[in-house]
Every structure is written in C-alpha cells, then in structure tokens.
Write a structure and sequence with these properties.
alpha+beta, Alpha-Beta Plaits, 4 helices, elongated, four-stranded antiparallel β-sheet
Length: 152
C-alpha cells in the first residue's frame, strides 16, 4: 500500500490562560508589525502606554490587597466523608471565609478531593491549620498554597 501524503505534526501550541499574558502577546505582535512597517515610534508609544498601565494596575492591586493572604486548600478524604462538613469543623477556629473551587472523586477506593479558596484568621499559623485538618478523622492529606505569592 502506498502512502500519498503524511503531514508532519507541526508546532505544538500552548494555551495562554491569563488575560494579562494575552495582552503581552498582542503587544508583541503590534510592536513587531509597527517595526516591520518602519514605524518604530508606534511601537515605542505602545510599549510606554502598556508599561504605565501595568504600573497603575500593580499599584491598585497592592492598595486593594487584603491584610491576611488568601490560600488554596486541597483536601484528600476517605470515601465516606463529606468534604464540606469536615472543613466546617475547622472554619470557626482557624478560617474566616471559604469558597469551594472544585470537588471530585479520585477513585472508588481513594475517596474525594476538594479544593477551596480560604482566608485564615489574622495571626493564625498555616502549619497549625494543616496539623488541625490532618488530625480530623477522614482527612488523608491536606495541602495549603499561598495565592498570589508569585505575582510580584
């Protein structure tokens, strides 16, 4: 049997999920087109406007940032336990607010995994929160990630 045409797989593309990153990609395209059209002043003006906008957004983000950092909490639970009720036990003591982001099953034997955005009480220790959560019956593992730590 003869193969007539076998296309190469081509370049692998990644998805740009963050809106800010998309803006930088569009800026790079615009600057490249401006320089290619022999209008470097358009590229310079675009870079200046975007740099000023980024500076203003960073200043606004810092001014509106909560005093207590937010965390992402990931709990893995035994199959017969309700994730939300287990987290309710810790809420009054260590957590000010919580918002469910995702919940799902791992396997029939492995149980459930839940992901929440939480804000701990001011002055509370994240390590103590993890110890408190892992001491609860039915919690197999707990992981706490600080949100926004890599933004600046």
């Amino acid at each position: 049997m003869q193969t007539l045409y076998s296309p190469s797989p081509g370049p692998v593309r990644g998805v740009v999920r963050d809106t800010q990153d998309r803006g930088y990609v569009i800026l790079a395209v615009i600057c490249g087109m401006a320089v290619g059209a022999k209008n470097p002043w358009v590229a310079t003006l675009g870079i200046t406007v975007v740099a000023l906008a980024e500076l203003l957004f960073r200043l606004a983000r810092r001014a509106n940032a909560p005093d207590q950092p937010e965390y992402t909490l990931r709990l893995r639970l035994s199959p017969d336990h309700d994730p939300d009720s287990l987290l309710s036990a810790a809420r009054g003591k260590d957590i000010i607010s919580r918002e469910l982001i995702a919940i799902g099953t791992l396997d029939k034997q492995d149980g459930t995994e839940g992901v929440w955005r939480i804000q701990p009480r001011p002055g509370s220790d994240p390590a103590a929160l993890i110890q408190h959560l892992t001491a609860i019956s039915g919690v197999r593992s707990a992981r706490l990630l600080r949100r926004g730590a890599d933004e600046d």
